Each structure stands twice: as C-alpha cells, then as structure tokens.
Amino acid sequence: MRSVTLHVIAFVLAVLELLAALAAGSAALLSLTTEALMRTATAAGTGFTARTGIAPMSQRLRSDLAAVLSMPEGATR
Fold first, then answer.
1. What local confidence, expressed as pLDDT, does residue 73 receive?
2. How many other C-beta atoms are found inside a 10 Å radius of the C-beta of residue 49?
3. Are 49 and 56 in contact (CB under 8 A)?
4. How confident is the model at residue 12, as a pLDDT?
5. pTM score > 0.70 for this model?
6. Is the four-CA dihedral 9, 15, 18, 19 of positive or negative sign?
7. With contact defined as beta carbons under 8 Å apart, do 45 and 56 qualify?
8. Portion of the chain with pLDDT greater than 90, in percent
9. Dihedral (C-alpha) 51, 53, 56, 58: value to the nearest 10 degrees?
C-alpha cells in the first residue's frame, strides 16, 4: 500500500511539473511574439516617418517630457 501511495504522489508531482513547464513555455512564447510584433511595428513606423519627413517627436513634446521627468516625485505641474 505504501508503494502505491508513493507512486501516486510521484505521478501527481510529475504532472504538476509538466503543467508548470507548459505555463512557463507559453509565457515565454507570448513574450517573444509580442516583442517581435512590437519591433516590426516600430520599424514600420520609423520607415514611414523617414519616407514622409515627419518628426516622430516634436521639440515641444520632447521638452515637456523632459520637464515632467525632471520633477521630484509627488510634485504636480
């Protein structure tokens, strides 16, 4: 009886390990897919702005962003 219990516990642990590996693999695949899509979108956007001559970030937006980032934590504009 003890041997059967140990085998059942080993089987359950093996199944749990396989499920954990499947979840980790799925998360890694989703991460890689998302990164590839974002890199493709960024490259397409960069190519579009280069062809049309549009500045991807205006000087005003750049200075506003720099002002916000240089503010101390908790401060308001």
1. 79
2. 13
3. yes
4. 97
5. no
6. negative
7. yes
8. 49
9. 180
Q: Phi first, then psi: what are they for 44, rounded to 5°?
A: -65, -40
The DSSP 8-state label assigned to residue 74 in this structure reads: T
Q: Per the structure block, which two tokens stand in for 22? A: 């499947």
The amino acid that residue 41 corresponds to is A
Amino acid at 29: L
pLDDT for 17-54, tens place per residue?
Answer: 999 999 999 999 999 999 999 999 888 887 887 788 77
Q: Which of 77, 48, 54, 53 is nearest to 65 (CA)?
A: 77
In angstroms, the CA 56 to CA 48 distance is: 10
Contact 46, 56 (CB under 8 A): yes
- Closest residue by Cα to residue 56 from 46, 66, 65: 46
DSSP letter at 54 equals: -
Rounded to whole angstroms, the Cα distance separating 60 from 13 reads: 58
